Amino acid sequence: MKLYTRSGDKGTTGIIGGRRDKDHIRVEAYGTCDELNSFVGRAVALLDDEMFPDMKSELIRIQHELFDCGSDLANVKEDAEFKVTPEMVTALEEHIDEYIPQAPELQRFILPGGSIAAAEMHILRTVTRRTERLTAALMKEEPINEHVFKYLNRLSDYFFAAARVVNAREKVADIEYERSAIVFKGSRKKKQ
């Protein structure tokens, strides 16, 4: 099998059900999704096996789901069968809800960083946001699987929660943004 086809030498690329210019917003969206997936792979490699077995497993699942997102974003067939489902969005929400109590209560905005692995999670969060913005722009031009957009929205929240858990498990404090007011009042319900 050859890795090169020469079919894109004139500035277009094949997608599921058609072709687009390589700088088309659809290609930008699924290409950035692929970039995000590569960063997730790096995060998996950075996380300690003993401290983060749960998170590493989740990140590998997320890599598969990001392939699903990219596939859906690259699909322009009228009778397309999409892969990203509402259940995938719900699963992310459940993981976020599990992570929130594992980190100190949040009151102010925090700076991206802490440990190397937590900083990597913040990079994932920001690349996810970029993917989400490109997908939002694509939605204005052409129809897409709406669950992809919802998934990306929750995924950035997941990476924020994961970054905080990484710092908490590694006993590294989040750094509060020094000019932040208290913006997250009562983020956890008090036990009665």
Automatic annotation (TrEMBL):
A biological process term (GO) from this entry: cobalamin biosynthetic process
Keywords of the record: ATP-binding, Cobalamin biosynthesis, Nucleotide-binding, Transferase
Lineage: Bacteria, Bacillati, Bacillota, Bacilli, Bacillales
NCBIfam families: PduO_Nterm (TIGR00636)
InterPro entries tied to this protein: CblAdoTrfase-like (IPR016030), CblAdoTrfase-like_sf (IPR036451), PduO-typ (IPR029499)
Name used for this protein in its record: Corrinoid adenosyltransferase
EC number: 2.5.1.17
Keyword flag ATP-binding: yes
Originating species: Sinobaca qinghaiensis
